[in-house]
Design brief:
The chain has helices spanning 37-41, 48-70, 89-106, 115-126, 166-176, 183-191, 216-232, 238-263, 279-292, 301-304, 309-320; strands at residues 6-11, 16-23, 27-35, 79-85, 110-114, 134-139, 144-151, 154-160, 268-272, 295-297. With 338 residues, the chain is of the alpha/beta class. The longest helix has 26 residues, at 238-263. The two termini are 31 Å apart. The model has no long low-confidence stretch (mean pLDDT 96). Bound molecules: 5'-O-[(R)-(carboxyoxy)(hydroxy)phosphoryl]adenosine and zinc ion (ZN). 5'-O-[(R)-(carboxyoxy)(hydroxy)phosphoryl]adenosine binds at residues 14, 140-142, 167, 170-171, 182-185, 188, 273-275, 277-278, 305-306.
Amino acid sequence: MDKDITVLAIESSCDETAAAVVVNGRQVLSNIIASQIDIHKIYGGVVPEIASRKHIEKINQVIEEALVTADRTLEDMDAVCVTYGPGLVGALLVGVGAAKAISYAAHKPLVGVHHIEGHISANYIANPDLEPPFLCLVASGGHSHLVRVRDYGEYEILGRTRDDAAGEAFDKVARAIGLGYPGGPQIDRLSGEGNPDAIAFPRASIEDAPYDFSFSGLKSAVLNYLNECRMKGVEYSQADVAASFQQAVVDVLVNHTMLAAENFDIKKVAIAGGVACNGGLRAAMEAACRERGYAFYMPTPILCTDNAAMIGAAGYYDFVRGVRHGLDLNAVPGLKLG
Ligand code: KG4
Ligand code: ZN
C-alpha cells in the first residue's frame, strides 16, 4: 500500500480561525475551530478589521491544538494547505502568513486551496465512497454556486447568484425580523414553529440562465411584507415569516439543482456550505433525490460551516495532483474557481 499522506490545513477566510490534520483527504485526526461569532454578533455582521485581529490572536494556538489533538508533530506533515481565497483579504493573509512560515521553517510543501473547493470537498470526508463526477450546490454566507464537479480539481460553474448569496439572505431577513447574527440557524429553528405556506413569497428564476439564483427580490418581498404589517398596525408572526421565507429559498435551491442534475444527466448530488446545515434544505434535497433515484450526499453540519478539515480534504487532492505554491503565495480575495 502507498504511504499515507498527512496534511496540516489552515482556514481563516472569514470569521473562523481553524486548523486541522487530515490523512489521505478523508480521515480527520483533528478539526479545531475558534469561532468569532460572539464578537461579530454585537455589530450584526462580520467586521473585517476585527476578524483579522482575532485571527492573529488565535492562529498559533489553533494550529498547536490541531497538532496536539491529532497526536502529530510538524515533522509528520507531508504538506501545509491553506485557504488563499476567496474571502476577506486581511483575514486570509493571517492564515496564508502562518502557513508560509511553517512551510519555510519545517521544510514542508505549501498548497494554496480555494475556499469553495474546500466546501465541496467536505463531502469526501463525510462520504468515503463519493467520487467525482457529481453535482454540488454550494450555499454559504458569501456564495451560492451550482457546481459540476467533473473530476478532482475540475469544476464547471453552472449557476451562481446574481445578487445576494443564500446565507446572506438568511442573515438579512433574520435581522429584519429581530433575530441576531448569524441568522441562518435562528430562522432554521424558528421555521419549525411556523407555517411555510402562510405567506406567498416569490421564487425567482432568471430567463436564459435557469441555474442562476437571485435572492434580493425575495429579501425585498419580506421587507415589504413587514412594512405593510407595521403600517396597518397588524401583528405579524415571526415564525410564519421565517418558515415562509425559508421554504421559498429551499424551493429555489432544490428546483435549480434538480433541473441541472436532469439536464446534465448527473445522478449524484451533494450540498455544501453553511446553508447546507439548514434542516429544511437537507430534508427537501434528500427527498427530491430519492424521488428521482439520485444518490444524495451532505456533510455533517460542523463540516458545512467554515472549517479547516475541508481545506485538508481539498488540499490533499491538490497535493497528489502536484499543486505546489511558493513562498510568494498571496491572499486573493476574489479568487475564481476552476
Ligand atoms: O460556509 P459559511 O460558514 O461561511 C461562508 O463561507 O460564507 O456559511 C455561513 C452562512 C451564514 O450566512 C449563516 O447564516 C448560514 O451559513 N447558515 C445557515 C444555517 N447555518 C448557517 N443558513 C440556514 N440554515 C442554517 N441552519
Ligand atoms: Zn465558507
